[in-house]
Amino acid sequence: xxxxxxxxxxxxxxxxxxxxxxxxxxxxxxxxxxxxxxxxxxxxxxxxxxxxxxxxxxxxxxxxxxxxxxxxxxxxxxxxxxxxxxxxxxxxxxxxxxxxxxxxxxxxxxxxxxxxxxxxxxxxxxxxxxxxxxxxxxxxxxxxxxxxxxxxxxxxxxxxxxxxxxxxxxxxxxxxxxxxxxxxxxxxxxxxxxxxxxxxxxxxxxxxxxxxxxxxxxxxxxxxxxxxxxxxxxxxxxxxxxxxxxxxxxxxxxxxxxxxxxxxxxxxxxxxxxxxxxxxxxxxxxxxxxxxxxxxxxxxxxxxxxxxxxxxxxxxxxxxxxxxxxxxxxxxxxxxxxxxxxxxxxxxxxxxxxxxxxxxxxxxxxxxxxxxxxxxxxxxxxxxxxxxxxxxxxxxxxxxxxxxxxxxxxxxxxxxxxxxxxxxxxxx
Length: 428
Known about the structure:
Distance between the termini: 53 Å
Largest sheet: 8 strands, antiparallel, barrel
Oligomer: single chain
Order of helices and strands: EEEEEEEEEEHEEEEEEEEEHEEEEEH
């Protein structure tokens, strides 16, 4: 059971969130009003600690965490009874979800939002509402049957893809949502990013450079009849004859009109075009901005779009794997700091080094023995920095980590990555 003996020095006070700390003159009355969860890479709550104040002859010199709750879990979430510090009324545990003890007893049912889960048998208690999309899984399975490395968010797929897919299915055509930043002064510079989903649930995540930001021969940079700055959310509805997400990448363009209200709110509509100038859909814009002429404008822009295409199942896996990697990075930093604290005699102020996780970066790693085949991987680093109070001569270092999602893609001539499974859909 995790029972750290760590003192946080008074020189590094905890954030003020409106609750009173224990004071030097009254170290008991206000102690423990804050509670902090300690979790692992799956989000499992393994301990909850308080913020009790440490006093030395009436002088506050730090905070001594006291463990209020703690437990360890079997692979599918069952509680190890012999390693359970019950705690009074703490409701959250496995995957950070809330326990529902009313029907099956303590710790024997967990509320995942969409469905209830029984950790004793490692199965949900109702059919997965998305079971038809994943025929290779049991309709009651948990976390893809890989509970050591993955968790189940809520029994459902990522909400944005699901929402866009519902619209695409109803329209029987590709739909996209994106955000854009645009600068106009006769000529145009625009940068966009977003997601397009076809009626089958396949996903294109894309970035678009428009106007002067789109570098290709013969690009005039577009034009606009106003000088303006704007940030907009865009909703694109493509024509039914456009079925292939790959057709949205490469050179394209748009022509449209926009108007402002009190020079703040921006409304617009544009016709999306392919490389030859043919209309392929309509985009509607809503956002904030400022224009020299408040009544609106007419504009035209050429653009270049690059991106990644995955099947819906692959997108969900990559999306959920990133959540797992974020937990792993945070946990790795906590584990390193705890080890350094133990080496320093239990006082974190005397630790020689501390760890800080970097942001998660997406990369593509070549598959051995296959031509033009890559796996999507996530990379992150632990930045190990010396404690300036006790380690003046220490030099910072990095520990690099890689997580392979196993999702295979191929690279086209324009540098876009396209799922092997998506390519094969057209051959079936």
